[in-house]
Design goal:
Layout lengths: L7 E6 L2 E6 L10 H16 L5 E6 L3 E3 L20 H10 L4 E5 L2 E3 L1 H8 L2 E5 L3 E3 L13 H4 L5 H10 L2 E3 H7 L4 E3 L4 H12 L4 H13 L5 H16 L2 H11 L13
Length: about 260
């Protein structure tokens, strides 16, 4: 576990690495300090073979308010950037390990981009979500890369152009997040989802993420060829041998954490 004063906290428990945004007084804005901290912890989770799933969450009433509008003020010294927000979004998408979001606070700007980039995002139903950029004279440019593939054109136009904040239920309805649940059920929903995900084989989960990101961008003939090769390699893998053996023997596969067995 990391120092409680850090911009984001890091903890690993039973195969789940939890990264907690920890600057509630600054609405967990994406300051250089925050981005550096998130990037460091995300890299640590990727490099830890004991980590099966990565979970993002927050302290305070805001998950992430996006860009740090208080930065670059005269007399304020900024740390050196080790990571970029763009790279973090891309790393989440390319991560072979599933990345989930426990969204327990409001999301605006770049915070919406984070929530949209996660493989599975579950939000408390009392939060609000908004592409508020146009209200301050900018646009949701970078996060459009992860948000637009999840939205119908009509919904994207309305949300990007009017700058209004919407309830969590609406965010789930348009596909930005998976679902909104009552706050008192959020942790239960997260636990149940994590318990399901960690039952998948590590290489199978990584391959499934590749299917989701690559197949929609391929020509059909190219997709048939690539997926056939991928399927064959998976069926011939030691992981599949173990998984199929566990299925036949009616036991849990060796990769399932003990508490999930």
């Amino acid at each position: 576990m990391t120092n409680s004063d850090e911009a984001s906290l890091y903890d690993v428990n039973q195969g789940v690495a939890t990264i907690t945004l920890n600057r509630p007084e600054n609405k967990n804005a994406l300051s250089i300090e925050m981005v550096n901290s998130i990037g460091d912890h995300f890299a640590a989770a990727q490099g830890d073979p004991g980590v099966r799933v990565i979970l993002f969450t927050n302290n305070g009433n805001t998950f992430c308010a996006g860009a740090d509008l208080k930065a670059n003020q005269p007399g304020v010294t900024q740390p050196t950037a080790r990571h970029s927000f763009v790279q973090i979004l891309d790393d989440i998408i390319e991560s072979p390990k599933p990345v989930l979001g426990r969204i327990a606070g409001h999301c605006t700007g770049g915070g919406v981009g984070l929530a949209a980039a996660f493989d599975i995002s579950i939000v408390a139903d009392d939060i609000i979500v908004g592409f508020t950029e146009v209200r301050i004279g900018v646009a949701p440019a970078v996060i459009s890369v992860v948000c637009l593939p999840k939205l119908r054109r009509a919904d994207a136009s309305e949300l990007f152009l009017n700058g209004e904040r919407i309830p969590a239920s609406r965010a789930a309805e348009v596909g930005l997040v998976n679902r909104a649940v009552p706050r008192d059920l959020l942790d239960q929903e997260i636990r149940e989802t994590l318990n399901k995900v960690v039952r998948g084989g590590p290489k199978a989960l990584a391959a499934s993420k590749q299917l989701i990101s690559r197949v929609p961008q391929m020509r059909r003939s190219e997709a048939w060829e690539w997926t056939a090769e991928l399927s064959q390699s998976l069926f011939q893998s030691p992981e599949a041998e173990e998984g199929i053996g566990a299925f036949r023997e009616r036991r849990d596969a060796s990769w399932v954490p003990p508490t999930n067995q």
